[in-house]
Design a protein that fits this description.
This protein is an alpha/beta fold. The protein has 2 domains: 150 residues, 3-Layer(aba) Sandwich (Rossmann fold); 78 residues, SIR2/SIRT2 'Small Domain' (2-Layer Sandwich), CATH 3.30.1600. Helix content is 35%, strand content 19%. It has 10 helices and 10 strands. The strands form 2 sheets. It has a 7-stranded parallel β-sheet with strand order 1-10-9-8-2-3-4, sandwiched between helices. β8, α9 and β9 form a beta-alpha-beta unit. The two termini are 25 Å apart. The structure holds nicotinamide-adenine-dinucleotide (NAD) and zinc ion (ZN). Nicotinamide-adenine-dinucleotide binds next to α2 and β9. Zinc ion (ZN) binds next to loops.
Length: 243
């Protein structure tokens, strides 16, 4: 593993035939998206573990929706940052094939990324608790939104504690991991499974890994290049080395 060799990272990206990216909460830090962990995570003395669960929603759907509505309002105020924008540019240039994100803030899509696999869902996505309805909202929820198909309750289409990931999305993720010859890992602590193991699958198949983070993580020892820094600075610098 080499540290802070941005030229080496640029070579990996240039030489790749099928580059994918995995992003986490760190890429949205510079957009001021709250982390909903620690101090940021508190809302009226509840923490995320008490609200982001199927049991919480079954017991008190209005309370859970109030919290989501508040979060939607906060995220509506945030804007994509240069790191999100560089990933859009690389997709448009054909360099980046797929973007896998753990973020639920929807900022990759707002920035313009098209080929995004949101493994933990999206704060603006809705699904019915009773039927197969799925949809998107464009404004913070006012109360519990009713299902347009069956009038039952809609819930946020995000993965809650104790729930498994969407099997269809995970299937697509594994298809991409098995095509990739390089993976750029940005702003994830690599602690949450299964996402933490995605880069290892690429590596095992002989692919190259580039990590961008303001700290070292459990992945740092296995990546080919680790770039220490803020995503919003490092990605534009990398981009300037690609032409
Ligand atoms: P995490 O909070 O565990 O780790 C964030 C990582 O980003 C850390 O390693 C940190 O050092 C790094 N980082 C911080 N600022 C950075 C910057 N400016 N540039 C580059 N790196 C930076 O996040 P995770 O690994 O995504 O796991 C968190 C879980 O919580 C996920 O399940 C995710 O769904 C959820 N979550 C989502 C959001 C969001 O949608 N924006 C925010 C918080 C948490
Ligand atoms: Zn329904």
């Amino acid at each position: 593993m080499v540290k802070n060799h941005i030229q080496a990272a640029a070579e990996i990206i240039k030489e790749s035939k099928y580059l994918i990216a995995l992003t986490g909460a760190g890429i949205s830090k510079e957009s001021n998206v709250p982390t909903f962990r620690g101090e940021d995570g508190l809302w009226r003395n509840y923490n995320a573990m008490e609200l982001a669960t199927p049991a919480a929603f079954a017991n008190n759907p209005s309370l859970v929706w109030e919290w989501y509505s508040w979060r939607q309002g906060l995220i509506a105020e945030c804007e994509p940052n240069p790191a999100h924008n560089i990933l859009v540019k690389w997709e448009e240039k054909g360099i980046l094939k797929t973007l896998i994100t753990q973020n639920v803030d929807g900022l990759h899509r707002r920035a313009g990324s098209q080929n995004v696999l949101e493994v933990h869902g999206n704060l603006w996505a809705l699904k019915c608790v009773s039927c197969n309805y799925v949809g998107m909202s464009n404004a913070p929820a006012l109360g519990i939104p009713p299902c347009p198909q069956c009038a039952s309750h809609l819930r946020p289409d995000v993965v809650w504690f104790g729930e498994s990931l969407d099997a269809g999305i995970i299937d697509q993720v594994y298809i991409e991991l098995n095509k990739a010859d390089a993976c750029l890992v940005v702003g994830t602590s690599a602690l949450v499974q299964p996402s933490a193991s995605f880069p290892l699958i690429v590596k095992k198949r002989g692919g190259q890994l580039v990590e961008v983070n303001v700290e070292e993580t459990s992945l740092t020892d296995v990546v080919d290049v680790h770039l220490l820094g803020m995503a919003g600075n490092v990605l534009p610098s990398l981009d300037s080395l690609l032409d």
